[in-house]
Amino acid sequence: MCWLQTVVICFVVGAVVGGRDFPPNFKFGTATAAYQVEGAWNISDKSPSIWDSYVRRHPEKIKDMSSGDVACDSYNQWKKDVEIASDLGLDFYRFSIAWTRLMPSGFPNTVSEDGKKFYNDLIDGLLEKGIEPVVTLYHWDLPQSLQDLGGWANPLVSDWFADYARVVFSLFGDRVKTWITLNEPLIFCEIVYNTALHAPGILSVGVGNYLCNKHAMIAHAKAWRIYDEEFRPKYKGKVSLSNQILWLESETESDEEITEISRQFMVGMFSHPIFTKEGGWPPVIEKIIAEKSKKEGLSKSRLPPFTQEEKDFVKGTFDFYGFNYYTSRIVKKAKEGERIGPWPFAGASDLDIHLTVRPEWKHAATSWFYICPEGLRRQLAWLKEQYGDIEILITENGYASYDGGVDDQDRVQYYKEHLEQVLLAIEDGVNVSGYTAWTLIDNFEWSDGYRSKFGLYQIDFEDPLRKRTPRASAHYYASVIKSRSIDVDNKLTDEL
Ligand code: NOJ
């Protein structure tokens, strides 16, 4: 980098650190997910989800052999969650509904009174404090009874999900105005079937993942259309899905083409069907998978095609783009014998690439997590370039540490650097409407168990009441929200 570029970058960063503000209508939130926080896994008429079963069948797959059986006990302690959300000054709180708590059979013939009450109380509690509830319908906890019928590999799953969505919209749509249908199909399809490292622990490389991807796109579209036709006229809310995206950058100029193809696998797979005028899979990945399938002696592509009718049904089913950002990767063509590299990734078995990270990207407390704040701004620009000038809501961003202490200056730094990139993206002209910190409280981090901590608030997992204590990052985030600026104090104070 030449000295002039360095001066320009320092000037721009300096201007941001110097205290530039977020637009007045920009919203700040935090997020959690049902299995990660609620606990009460078998209370009342709740049925087991695939995570309830998985942690029982495969305790060894969770690094500390733990489970979400009790987690943060938010099922009982939800009032404390609302209280701390209010202390932070949040505009919104994103949480997910456990399908098995609300509809124990998986089907709409059973709607649990207890489940209804729990989510009604939580929603009303938030609204009383002036916090908008943002609700995810599916954050990876499929009813085990539906998994027994094939789960996301069965095309009928889109109808099961649509029925569930209708129940949720009809119960809570009068008060919930922002909905996320599916959280991260990249993880619950690609990572699940390509690695079996998450529930339901089924390995089906290059087959199950693509079946799941297609059924997820149709399921999302059905839910969006149900909302659009039956609920939007009276409730006037917004619906989309949340995609986790790793920003991908090429190692050298000659890797540019393969990097762009990789982005289509990573992002296009879950966006092209919904956010483009043509709809359907990105043509480049359709071609690659079809050719590979043919070479393998298959009569059909492993990537199930969309019919024209399905393409038309799925495209346009969004009101904003939900984007979860954590980390980035460098892409290069794989040499003989090289493996893809650090997860997560989509279409891994069909791409001959090798992923690395830059030496200066610090490692956070989980295998896949390397810190690259600039990736957030670059990915936002790419989304705008690909899908047009649409509203983008950052539905997750946050930092993992092994250290559970409260003076978490590394997390403060992570938030500051990433919020700075959001400000720069807004300045670039990207329509970012809000930011969600992952996560409100330390919680069950899937296969990491409770080893990696993402919380603004520390949870004492030894305490039956799961005491919540604010970290320095909570103070920092509260000050950002209050001042609408990132250049604020990050000291621990007794304000919260
Ligand atoms: C994204 C997922 O939505 C969330 O459940 C998870 O805890 C975070 N990533 C951190 O890994």
Quaternary arrangement of the chains shown? single chain
Morphology: globular
Proportion of residues in β-strands: 5-15%
The first-level CATH class name: Alpha Beta
The number of strands is 11
CATH superfamily heading: Glycosidases
How many structurally independent domains?
1
Low-confidence stretches: 1-19
**Percent of residues in helices:** 40-55%
Strand order, sheet with most strands:
1-2-3-4-5-6-8-9
The unique ligands bound to this protein are:
1-deoxynojirimycin
Report the total helices.
17
Instruction: Name the average pLDDT.
Output: 94
CATH topology: TIM Barrel
Description:
This protein is an alpha/beta fold. It has one domain: Glycosidases (TIM Barrel, Alpha-Beta Barrel), CATH 3.20.20.80. Helix content is 41%, strand content 14%. It has helices spanning 3-17, 34-37, 50-57, 74-88, 99-102, 113-128, 144-147, 157-172, 185-195, 208-235, 256-266, 272-275, 283-295, 308-314, 374-387, 409-428, 472-483; strands at residues 27-31, 92-96, 132-138, 178-183, 238-250, 321-333, 353-356, 392-396, 432-438, 457-459, 468-470. The chain has an 8-stranded parallel barrel with strand order 1-2-3-4-5-6-8-9, surrounded by 6 helices. It has a two-stranded antiparallel sheet with strand order 10-11. β10 and β11 (468-470) form a beta hairpin. The two termini are 43 Å apart. 52% of the residues are buried.
